[in-house]
Amino acid sequence: MEEKYKQQPANCIKVVLFGPESTGKTTLSRQLARYYNSVWVPEYAREYLQDKWNNERKTCEPQDLLPIAEGQMKLENELAQKTNSVLICDTDLLETKVYSETYYLGSCDPILEKYALENSYDLYFLTYIDTPWEADDLRDKPEHRKEMFDAFQDALIKYKKPYVLLRGDKKTRLETAVKYIDKLLNSKV
Question: Regarding beta strands 123-127 and 86-89, do their DSSP bridges make them parallel or antiparallel, or are they unpaired?
Answer without folding.
Answer: unpaired
